[in-house]
Amino acid sequence: MRALQYRAIGAAPELVEIETPEPGPGEVRLKVTAAGLCHSDWFLMGLPAEQYVYGLPLTLGHEAAGIVDKLGPGASGVAVGDAVAVYGPWGCGHCHACRQGRENYCVNAAALGIAPPGLGAPGAMAEYLIVDDVRHLVPLGGLDPVECVSLTDAGLTPYHAISSSLSKLWPGSTAVVIGVGGLGHVAVQILRAITSATIIAVDVDDDKLALATEVGAHRTVRSDPDAASRIRELTGGVGAEAVFDFVGAAGTVQLAREVVAIDGAVQIVGIGGATLPTGFFSTPFGASVRAPYWGSRSELEEVLDLARSGSVRVHVERFSLDEAPEAYRRLHEGDIRGRAVVVP
Ligand code: NAD
Ligand code: ZN
Q1: Ligand 1 centre and the CA of 121: distance in Å?
Q2: Domain segments of the chain: what residues?
Q3: Cα 86 to averaged position of ligand 1 atoms, centre (Å)
Q4: Would you place residue 209 in the very low, low, confident or very high pLDDT band (cuts 50, 70, 90)?
Q5: Ligand 1 lined by 223 (C-beta under 6 Å)
Q6: Which of 36, 100, 123, 327 could form a disulfide with 63 if both were Cys (CB 3.0 to 4.6 A apart)?
């Protein structure tokens, strides 16, 4: 089969021919119908050799949808031909977090060497994908795989962050979304769908701000040195009850600190590597700062339900597997509006 692999530190991803994998005991093989590109792929491809822990060669792609193609020995609960989305943050299945469906916070995954597809295990940028367990498959229930594949990360991750800040997002509150890319443009829609907060979207790119308005942001602010005072002004000096930073760079976590309201919440989702010192004299009284990771199995079902009800729609740019290296190049250059999706 054909697969897009990251094969050497610092090299561009490459389309190669590899053996079609066979599902082992309990595993399921999918014929991939869609695979989303995430900025996190660029994070790992930017790591120096001494920090790179994902294995080489690595088939990329941690947002996956497919058709069940073959069941491994003992696998049951799905049938050949079923259309499914893949829950990506695989855990051990047995710890307290996993039993709650919060496998994104599995305490054993790292020690057991369990990694998500495309982030250690072979990913979805290929004709076929092996999923380790039926519990990681969610029926698409009529959703189009290309339109909804990115909900497995670009939808699930903001949904998880927003859900855990819901108590701050009362009617009359303000939510700031920094970075209106793949995750951010879905975050704006989720905020519209499940809260009555006023949404202020922040980005460096005017076209991304235009997209933010199209998908429901009430106000937009350019990410520049005046952004904090502009947001303070828009909130009558109070600041934002919740700030979702989908960049995580030094400038954006600083902006989050400057605009979060007293007793507000900052969620640093972007993995730009910056830290936000939190303490009595650093952040406003009562403000919390959190760096969430991905989301739970039940939250993925909820996000897919939001798509089914028409409240959330990913803006998709489609690419073939041949065009995937070009799609990655464009993502790197900030030239994707919404999410890039590969259709093998
Ligand atoms: P993306 O490239 O699609 O979007 C990033 C957006 O941020 C773009 O619109 C860009 O113009 C904007 N931006 C860049 N610098 C900015 C700045 N200084 N101020 C304001 N806006 C700025 O990326 P994505 O795929 O949506 O991913 C967003 C981030 O979330 C990445 O860091 C990614 O690695 C991370 N991520 C984290 C998790 C998690 O579980 N925590 C999951 C998925 C992705
Ligand atoms: Zn676990």
Answers
A1: 23
A2: 2-152+314-343, 156-290
A3: 22
A4: very high
A5: yes
A6: 36
How many angstroms does the Cα of residue 246 sit away from the middle of ligand 1? Answer: 4
Do 2-152+314-343 and 156-290 have matching folds?
A: no
Mind listing the pLDDT tens digit for each residue in 225-259? 999 999 999 999 999 999 999 999 999 999 999 99
Domain 156-290 of CATH type 3.40.50.720: yes
d(CA 80, CA 155): 27
User: Cα separations (Å) of 38 from 74, 181, 292?
Assistant: 33, 10, 16
Residue 213 and residue 289: Cα distance in Å, rounded?
27
Q: Find the mean pLDDT for residues 41-64.
A: 97
> Could you identify the residue written with the tokens 């934002």?
240
Global pTM reads: 0.98
Encoding tokens for residue 179?
Answer: 């970075």
Nearest-CA neighbor of 92 among 152, 136, 130? 136
pLDDT band per the 50, 70, 90 thresholds, residue 343: very high
Rounded to the nearest whole angstrom, what is the distance from the C-alpha of residue 253 to the centroid of ligand 1?
13
Closest ligand 1 atom, residue 339 Cα: 3
Q: What is the pLDDT of residue 35?
A: 98
Q: How many CB atoms lie within 10 A of CB 69?
A: 18
- pLDDT value at position 163? 98
The CB of 43 under 6 Å from ligand 1? The reply is: yes
Nearest bound ligand to the CA of residue 340: 1
Residue 329, CA distances (Å) to 157, 179, 248 in order? 23, 19, 21
d(CA 255, CA 228): 6
Q: Check if 334 has its Cβ closer than 6 Å to any atom of ligand 1.
A: yes
Q: Return d(Cα 344, Cα 90) in angstroms, integer.
A: 23
- CATH number for the region 2-152+314-343 comes to 3.90.180.10
Q: Which ligand is nearest to the CA of 101?
A: 2
Q: Which atom of ligand 1 is nearest to the CA of 181?
A: 4
Structure confidence at residue 263 as a pLDDT band (50, 70, 90): very high
